[in-house]
Amino acid sequence: VPSVSDPSVPPSGVSCSGCGAELQCGDGGAPGFVPAEKYRGLLSEGPAALRGAVCQRCWALAHHGSALRLRLPPAEHRRVLSAALRRPPRHGRGPLLLYVLDVTELPDPVLPQLPALLSPDVPAAGVLVVGNKVDLLPADCRGHLGRLRQRVAAACARAGLRGAALVDIRLVSAKTGYGVEGLVSRLQRSWKCAGDVYLLGATNSGKSTLFNTLLRSDYCKSRAPDIIDRATVSPWPGTTLNLLKFPIINPTCDRIFRRQERLKEEATKTEDQLSTEEKKYLNQLKKQGYLVGEVGRTFQQQDSSAEIDFDPDVLSYSMDEDPRDPPKKHEEREEFTHNEVKDARWCFDTPGIVKEDCVLNLLTEKEVKLVLPSHAIVPRTFILKPGMVLFLAALGRIDYLEGEKPAWFSVLASNLLPVHVTTLSNADTVYEKHAGQEFLKVPMGGEERMKEFPPLVPQDITLKGIGTTEAVADIKLSSAGWVAVTAHAEEELLLRAYTPKGTALVVREPPLLPYISAIRGARIPGTPAYRTKKPPSFVENLRTTGSR
């Protein structure tokens, strides 16, 4: 189907089941676009066909992992979000805000914007902060999760979020399921079904992934996952364009009891007792993250279908056909009955809040996929002397200018991004020759790409070492990753760090993982690098073989 628009056809009034934007064929650059011919075909098939459709952008995300560029300025994001939060409460109570924060991105740049989004006349019931993506971080010592939680609490306090306004802080992985059952229990115990819940967060915080995970959990009404298509999950910033929602289950005493019984029973299992399918799925998750948890369902309809994800029968384009093929006949879709939704409390997903000064805003979809970590981060440690330089792809550079002794530089970034160490005298030549090429990988596209890419700009940093086992600070190279610096006690270092012009370079003190340099193998002879070491994964709510 050619991507032709027809401004004469009015918008449908029906939301895309992938991103929530109103389906339309009038503007190819706006959210919710469906090519005109396809749109008219769907209209002719009746209302059910349109209700099950996804826009061209969601189809491209699911089918090719690529997003069509959209005009959605940050002000528009804020407007959609603010308007939703300022609606009068439907149940006499303001909504609970579930703020999803990417722990690797601390200090979270969007958290301070939260107070401005809230309405003074309809105060929200509070904010429950969810620290997501903990599965990506290796445990640098015992109790590292407690320390991460303290770091999140400190970020909340700095943003003015404390006391009664801060309901709780939970650490989870929306992707591997770690901590999600605990989050559901916490929501059911304290919030019950008192009012609506809004998921908020910066783009790429994993908010839509959490929405999809909660949709498949005991938090959602048992029939709802079969009716609601899951939010489009993609690393491209700003994929949730309007409000997607699911109805929250009322946690009656009987339901909470049945749920607790299921969780208790699951906790008695060992890995050996899992089915072949379950083991296979678990091993897949272990490759992806250091912390893994299973999200189950207690209240399942007998005839409930398995995974829906992007079901070919309910999409405007089937996932396994070319969009030029004739559309398949759409079946009548299940709908909620009036009684199921008249008093329902809803969990809303919202558009991601755009992070300004973020390197991801400068990158193509393909580059974003390389830069955003999708698997457990394996730390890479190097020992550098003064006069040496470390490159993280062509997105960040750290020069060790002055110091008495060597220091350790531990890189925490996507495993797909290359790290290169060179001398100060060669560094400019390395960048000029290899930026845009395979050697430094990102950005990609050769000289043409680098002509339009902002130059690296420097910032001088002075640090004083704590000791050879504890990092003094993280140098956060925007959202490309960070480098933890470990130096001899009282040793003064002068460093110069670079990120692309217009992106934020942050010196994070104290560091997120202070003992990270210890997670390394033997030194590789004749190089400044150490062999990498990947700590084992931990599965929550599963008995280790041999324990009682």
UniProtKB/TrEMBL annotation:
CDD domains: YqeH. Transmembrane segments: none annotated. Residues 253-280 form a coiled coil. GO terms for molecular function: GTP binding. Residues 324-336 have a biased composition (Basic and acidic residues). Residues 409-509 form the NOA1/YqeH-like C-terminal domain. InterPro entries: GTP-bd (IPR006073), Mito_transl_resp_regulator (IPR052807), NOA1/YqeH-like_C (IPR048422), P-loop_NTPase (IPR027417). Residues 316-336 are annotated as: Disordered. Keywords: Coiled coil. Pfam families: MMR_HSR1, YqeH-like_C. Residues 197-247 form the G domain. This is NOA1 protein. The lineage of its organism: Eukaryota, Metazoa, Chordata, Craniata, Vertebrata.
